[in-house]
Structures are given as C-alpha cells and as structure tokens.
Protein 1
Amino acid sequence: MIPFSDFKPKKIEYKAIKTSKKIIVIDPGHGGKDPGGIGWNRVKEKNIVLPIGKYLRDILRKKGYKVYLTRDRDKFITLRNRTKFANRKKADLFISIHCNIAPKHPEVYGIETYFLSPARSKRAERVAKLENSAIGNLQTSTQKIVLNFLNKTKIIQSQKMAIDIQKNLIYGFRKHYKNIKDGGVRPAPFWVLVGTQMPAILIETGFISNKMEAKRLSDKIYQKRYAEYIANGIESYFFKFSILVFKSFILWVLYFLANSSLVIPTVNFPKEDANFNNSLCPLCKISNVPPTTTFFMAITYPYFAEIYKIHLID
Ligand SMILES: [Zn+2]
C-alpha cells in the first residue's frame, strides 16, 4: 500500500502529449443478468460503474483520445470478451471499473486501485474472488500457470498507471469531501485483466455496502468527479511515459556519441597522472573537443552517469 497524503500533482502542460494516437478501452464491470455487488438500499454495482465509464469516455474524447467502452448500456458481457475487445482495438490502456462490497462489515469503505499480478494478499484475493466469479470454474492449477507467464513489463506499467490514478483520485476527492479513505494500490489476480495485451488496471470505486459511499457513488456529481480524476491520472501516466521515452532517446544519443571517436577524440593522459585515470568518464576526455559537444555532454551528464556508473574526478 502506498500512502498518498503528501501528494500534490504538478501543473503539467498536457498539450505536449500527442493524445490523438492513444487508444483507451474503458470497461464498466458486470451488466445485464449480472448486477455485480448489491449494496446499501439495493444499490447495484452495474448501475454505478456504467455512468462513471460514460463520463470518463466523454472527458477523454474531449482531450483527444480514442476511447471505446466494452458496454455502453445494461448488457451482459463475459470477461473474456471484454479483454478480446480491448486487444482487437489495439488499446494502449485498459481500465475496468467496479464497486466493492463487504456485506458483513458495512462500516468498511475506501477507494482501491488494482493491477494484475500473481502476487496476492488475503484482502486482494477476497476482492479478486468477487470480481472473478463471472469466469466460472477455472482450475486452480491453470490459474497458476497463466499467472506465472505474465509479462513483467506490462505489470510494471500497470502498477505505475494504478499509482497515478489512485493518487489523483485521493487528491481530487479530498478537496471536496471529508472521509475519503485511501485504500491504496494493490496487486491482484483479476481475470478480466489477464488476457489483455496492454497495461491494465481495475478500480474499486468504493464500497456500496457502506451507506456513505453508496450514497456518494449514486450521486451524478460524484460520478463526474470520479471520471475527471481518473482522466487526470491517465494524463499523468502518459506524460511520465513520454518523459521516459525522451530520456531513453537522450541515452541512446549519448551512447552513440561516447562510442564515436569522430565526436569525442580519445585523449591519452599519462597513466601516472592520478587525476586522469583514463576511465570511462567522458568529461575527463573532452579537453580538446568542440565547445558544443562539451556543453551537450555537461547537461546530459547525469543520465550518462546513471547508466555507466561513472563519476567526475575531484
Ligand atoms: Zn465488480
């Protein structure tokens, strides 16, 4: 679990991100003959997650994303068809929206975000069992085999996205409501996420077995805010991802430069000179290269140093 009490999102100029190329599949859970959880005052999960999904679709479309819903009405869809749909659309993200229930503990409430992982805690397993029921009786041994073959990169990206979304939800809601409980980001073996070929998360928007949260989740304004904060989390995730791509590009350029004798002539310092140990350190070798290269190397040195574990000599 990750505490977010100190979190304050930075103002980011999101226009820099090319949102038009990103495809997002939103999956409002359950539907049709499957009501999902039934909570306080007979509130049904399927009727809460659908409007949140639709609001989220509208917000993301306005921002320029390509967005698809696995269902836009009260219709039953199998878990397998939900992931198949996302794969067919070649989505960059898959977001499944649900509500939690704890009928024996109506006092329990809170917002939780899950990412698919073979790792499991008792609590995560309980929630996964509830949400996985639609898949029927899959052998435990089969489950274990599938979970062992999960793509590690996808898990890491899913976890990062889950953190960004959870942070924005907690930060956003706390500005307007009291008693917003951060249930944290957790790994869990959700079957709706298993078949996806893209980063995938599942949001447990709150406990509808809790009176306060059931009331809030049934409220249109709360639902709209939910969609808005999820969207903020998605933007934050894509922004960080684009920074990562940029950093990787810089590193690639640096690697090329460092290995090119045309750009950085090797200077052979006398071996007995202790100040120049002829190490990998590029700044030790660039005394006679053009000023532009020196400048370029200086500003990008931290990334280079990180990768090669090199250092400046005092
Ligand atoms: Zn559900």
Note: Residues 1-5, 12-16, 262-280, 306-314 have pLDDT under 50 and may be disordered.
Protein 2
Amino acid sequence: MANGLLKGKKGIIFGALDGKSLATKVAERCVAEGAEIVLTNAPVAFRFGEIQKLAERLNVQAIPADATSLEDLSNLIYQSIEILGGKLDFVLHSIGMSINVRKKRAYTNSKYDWMQKTFDISAISFHKLMQTCYEKDAINDWGSVLGLTYIAAQRTFPDYGEMAESKSLLESFARSFGYHYGTRKKVRVNTISQSPTKTTAGGGVKGFDVFFDYADKMSPLGNAPAEACADYCVFMFSDLSRYITMQNLYHDGGFSNMGMSPAVLDLGEE
Ligand SMILES: NC(=O)c1ccc[n+]([C@@H]2O[C@H](COP(=O)([O-])OP(=O)(O)OC[C@H]3O[C@@H](n4cnc5c(N)ncnc54)[C@H](O)[C@@H]3O)[C@@H](O)[C@H]2O)c1
C-alpha cells in the first residue's frame, strides 16, 4: 500500500546488509513511497553482504563508507548529492556492532579498546554523520534524521552488554544535535526504539530467540516486525511528522510500558 508519502524526497540509508536488515525494509518502503535514495554500508559489507543485489533490485546506487571515517562520510554525502541531483531530505542511521559482545567477552571483563570501537561504530558515527551533513549544509530545511535504538538504553538487559551504553549515547546525540539542527535548519532528529527483530545484529545477542519470545508475550500487540518499523520510518521521513524532534520513540507493541503480563506468567507454567 503506497501513498507517495515521500514523492520528491531524497535520502541516504545506512545499514542494509541482507534481506533481514531493518534498513533493507526501510529502503524498500522508501522507494515504494516515491523517494530517491542512495544506499551505503561499510566496505566489508559490500564483500560479504547483499547490498549490491538490493541496489540493483531497487535501481539505486550503493556507495561504500565506513561510518566511523569522516573522510568516507564526506565523500558519501558529496557523491549522494551529485547522484540524487540535490540536497537530502532524510537520513537513516541503522548501524550497530559490539566488539566485546561479538567476541563473547563478559561485560565485567570488557576490553576498553573494543568498547571504544563499539561506541565509535554504534553511536559516535551518528554524531559524525550529522556533523558532516551540518558542515556541508547537506540537508534541506525540515529534513529528518533517524537512528535505530533499543530499550536497553533505559533498562538493564544483561546480555546486551556495552550496546546498552552505545544506545544511551546514540539517543543523547539525537537530543543534543536535534537542538542545534532544529534551530539552524528546522531539521528534526529522532531515534526509534524497536522491538527485538531477527536480523544479523539482533541474533548476535546471547539467548536472542528465547528473549524474542519473552518480549513478544510481554507486548500487548506482540513484537513490532521489521516491516512495521519501515512504515514508521517512512512516516518520520514524511511531512506528516515535521514537528517531532529530539524524541526517543518506542516502536515495540507496548513493551516499554509493561510491568508484568499474565501471558509471560503462563509461559512458566507450560
Ligand atoms: N535487530 C534487533 O533486534 C534490533 C532492535 C532494536 C534496534 N536495532 C538496531 O537496528 C539497527 C540495525 O540493525 P539490524 O538489526 O538491522 O542488523 P544488521 O546487522 O542487518 O544491521 C547492522 C548494520 O550495521 C552495519 N555496520 C557495522 N559497522 C559499520 C560501520 N563501521 N560503518 C557502516 N556500517 C556499519 C552493518 O554492516 C550492518 O549493515 C542497529 O542500530 C541495531 O542496534 C536492532
């Protein structure tokens, strides 16, 4: 069901790795709604992922960029404006990776150089991206910048490790940069806090499948699927949401406001 909500809008989508990626679903929905987009991901994702296939299928260009590199970000933004024939209206940051979690290092025995790399990839890259756009005046007035986050920024989920702090930092950057971008260009900056979703990054968290079922039972509407997350992103990129900024927006079927659910108690009795 497409309504041309993004007709005439131009954007960059970070983080489409394969068919399960949240960014892949967002890219598909944005194009269906009439947007012109450029896809990007880390150079290594071009070797091992499916981004080129997605770009061909959507008939768009894909440009490699390591989101921690200011030089790569600068080239990406410059090239995207060339390809799209004008400044940007929206950007999706859909990037996350924890080195300590990936290497199965206990949270209480974290390696700090890995932790810093995790923060750089998963959170500081969001600031770098916005600062690069800001300096180049790359986003049109009333543009929309989104990052994807998780409720581990507010509550403790032990197996999420240092990604919890990464998401806190990411959400804080959205608020702080949202102030500066809002006053200067009316550009809005928000984060969407998504339900657990079966993707490569999601599956990297220990016990993910059990936790996925728990969250599904705990949420009155059930876990929000990737396709619904894409719908929400389209709304946030559209003109319908132009006064929403500096927010962390829960897209989680109600999970964030639950205390206990009888459906979860039933699980224990099964
Ligand atoms: N899957 C979930 O359960 C879930 C829930 C809430 C939020 N999120 C967030 O959604 C976002 C997307 O994750 P996903 O679940 O679609 O998994 P995914 O693995 O498909 O996407 C993560 C992306 O980050 C990219 N990336 C890693 N390092 C990078 C770098 N240096 N430069 C550029 N890109 C880099 C990867 O190549 C990959 O495309 C992440 O921020 C994640 O934390 C996921």
Note: The pocket of nicotinamide-adenine-dinucleotide is lined by residues 14-15, 17, 21-23, 41-42, 45, 66-68, 94-97, 121, 148-150, 194, 196-197, 199-202 (CB under 6 Å).
